[in-house]
Amino acid sequence: MEIVLFGLLAVLLVFMFVNTRKRQRQMKAEQEEKATKTVPGVKVLMQGGIYGTIVAYDAEDLDSPALVEIAPGTVIEVHSQAILRIVEPKDAVAEAEDADEVDSDEIVDEPQAPLEAPAESSLETPEETRARLDRDSDNK
Length: 140
Hints:
- There is one protein chain.
- The protein is α+β, with helices and mostly antiparallel strands.
- It is built from three helices and five strands.
- The protein has a five-stranded antiparallel sheet with strand order 4-3-2-1-5, with no helix packed on it.
- Strand 3 (66-71) and strand 4 (74-78) form a beta hairpin.
């Protein structure tokens, strides 16, 4: 009876060891993939639920902070491991397609305001941001 219990204990320990190693390899592969995809200009989701755009990131030195732009002209420093995942453009397209699924009977032609051209690559000053937000709130 004791031999069976020791055998069962040994099987459980081996299973735990193999499962832990598998999980560690998987996590390391995910970290390496995230490090290669994290380049300046890519949109990311941080652990606090904040979306932003990478301004600077050092994949070699994970202790150095990453610079993330969360709003035009607002750049913050975060720990590089605070970046939860890369927001793929296909995620946004899939969400938009799901939101656009409407019956043809419900489609109503409404005039839409022309979209503003995206700003140059230069950053807005805080005063310009406030002015833009005030204009947007006045139009609504």
